[in-house]
Amino acid sequence: MQIYKVGGAVRDRLLGRPVTDIDWVVVGASIEDMQARGFRPVGGDFPVFLHPQTGEEYALARTERKSGRGYGGFTFYASPDVSLEEDLLRRDLTINAMAEDDQGRIIDPYGGQADLQARLLRHVSPAFAEDPLRVLRVARFAARYAPLGFRVAEETLQLMRRIADSGELQALTAERSWKEISRALMEPRPDVFIQVLRDCGALAHLLPELDALFGVPQPEAHHPEVDTGVHCLMVLRQCALREQPLTVRWACLLHDLGKGLTPPEQWPRHIAHEQRGVRLIQAVNQRCKAPRDCAELAVLVGEFHTHAHRALELRPATLLELLQRFDAYRRPQRFEEFIAACEMDARGRHGLEQRDYPQAAYLRGAADAARTVAVQPLLERGLKGAELGEALARERLAALKAYKAERA
Asked: Structurally, how many domains does the chain consist of?
């Protein structure tokens, strides 16, 4: 029995990055050997065990063979006669197909160290094309390592195009896709994730509503970058730079989908794109099975982001409606995330990344002013039900009128 550290732990140590999760592969052992040493089996499709002391995962060396469509369409073979090189051959990228022995020596049969030096994300073997999920994984790695200068090797990008053209991406479950998308959006360069998917043709299959935005112009006076798709990438870049949560990043990704429905003869203007975009955002949320907090914020940001941009011009009654739509009194965090998404939208424009966004402070102040209205005095007057709601709305409207007058 020989035990090796494999995959990301080896890669990140060589890159000088923090190593968080450690995976181990065991060569020359059987299931019975592992259990005899106190390892607890947890694997479903193939033998994976938990170490009796550390709880870390140890997998028997295995090979795999394509047996169906999609991410799960594989038959695995684990046996003491499977070599380390055979196990590493089934992995996705050369930089993930290295191992380290107990003496710290690197076993690198497929050129992972050379690709680390060259800053290349390159597939290990043609079997890469058998797993459609790898298209998303490679794009995610590109988003993670772009700050270090990594790029996808051209031959790997060609394989990713073949997968996209084959229709295999449609075999991915929404749960698997969302896991990769959500992780990628939280990487240092989520915009690179989307760009790589577009470069290989996968974006048109996975998020066609977003892909449709590329090449759609906007008024240059407001959007010096002009292209709506490029703008969305720039907004994502701002989200990462300002460390926004997943909810905000997802909302920013989808906020302008309605512009993809504007008839070309109306370009570069996009009148009522906010309302047109709502059904598209809802469709993407449903197809991707986005969590409820992400889905709800995305719809609200899509519908109301231009309200935020015009916040200083809004009538008190419109401000009140906005606060009520967000349930800003009971869910202040969601309203705060809305403001953050709108600020990222405003900053995601060429040359305007550092421009002040006074609308953010104004909207926060409006919400605070409306929240100062106390319910107890209205209850003491005997109001309840619809009467209480109407009275509370009148008091909040008066507070918002006073707030706006103070800042006039």
From this structure: 3
Residue type for position 367: A
Nearby residues of 16 by Cβ (< 8 Å), 6 or more positions away: none
Task: Write phi, then psi, for 64 (nearest 5 degrees).
Answer: -140, 155
Whether residue 110 is found in the same domain as residue 123: no
Q: Please compute the mean of the pLDDT values over residues 360-388 and round it to a whole number.
A: 92
Q: What are phi and psi of 67, to 5 degrees?
A: -135, 0
Across the strands, what pairs with 5? Answer: 24, 100
Between CA 193 and CA 199 the distance in angstroms is: 10
> In terms of domains, do 321 and 244 share one?
yes
| Torsion angle of C-alpha atoms 5, 6, 7, 10, degrees rounded to 10 | 50
Lowest mean pLDDT among 73-77, 191-195, 291-295: 73-77
Supply the range of the domain harboring residue 216: 207-325+336-358
Q: Is 282 inside any structural domain?
A: yes
- CA distances, 112 to each of 26, 100, 313 (Å): 20, 12, 57
